[in-house]
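Q: Structure for this?
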Amino acid sequence: MTTGTHIDNAALFGVLSSLADNKQAIGRRYAYWCNGAPALEAAVAAAAMTQDELGHARTLYPLLEDFAQAEADPRQVEPTTRTLRYSVAALDSDFKGWSDFVATNFLLDTALTTFFEAAQDSTYEPLRQRARKILQEERIHFLHAEGWVRRLAKAGGAVRAALTASLKRIWDETLCWFGPNDDPAMIQLQQEGVIDATPDELRSRFLRKIMPVLNELEIDVPTAFNAASKRWEPAQPLPWSAWDAQGRRLGTF
Amino acid sequence: MNVSIPSSVSRIESVPTTPEGRIYTPMPTKSSENATDTTDTTTPPKRRRDALNESRVWQVYARRKYEEPLHEIGNVMADDVELARVYARTIFDEFSWVEMVIVPRETIVTVIAS
């Protein structure tokens, strides 16, 4: 639906805002570790990934200007003037260690990638174009995440414990980001062909990416494989009582 | 990119400074006593490096044009091939290579020693 030259779609505006805010926040948190990684090579990779994430945010924010929802408060379409924060609550504070970097790379960034994969044939052309470019860069990010999860897990002892604590820290919020299965915004996007999956399907696709690695490393997470539907699913209820549907984050993180 | 880096996270392993000379701010956390916590900002660098044991060297070869042969452009250190691929891609990104390969240094057979 359009009003004049602007698109009137609160659901798409909200999800795009969340994608941009999360990419911006991930980039800022990664940046903190550009010279703090455990090895020089990892520091260079962190710097490259920082630039990629901030670049993804920079391509998404301008899309917000095209929406009727931005007319009420034009400040909200620029990362420098934006006062709303639709990034996950886990990114409100600095990473406490390298394991938080790795966990964010492995879980949250991969969850966002799952969304962009679902938008590769989007009916909303600007997102379709950006999704394909972002996915090219995210391939190397996932290799980095997978490699570091393996390394930290296999190191054992306190290193492995730090990794599992970091994974646990953002586990629920990452799974919640897709929304409950009746999430009005995501359902509308799916019905309009902006993405090709429901929240539960997106969650399942995300788990299908990460679970082989976690299973191989014997890292316990609350998931179960549903043999009937052949899908990975959360094994326990997600904390929807704390879910902020507008900001797509857990309000009481 | 405007990035603010606090002194407490300045700890790249290869910086050739003495332990006393490194920018290093201990924090009173329980993990500061643990010798294997690579994610801990307070553990001295040598112990973190020992814990990660990143010792495999990978030679990196690339070419910019199809008519050129692959030539050595450097090396990276990584325990596994996936991280080695990431490091090679991110470190040697100065050109738009048409091909890049990595080879574990230990697989190279010397025919004529230098």
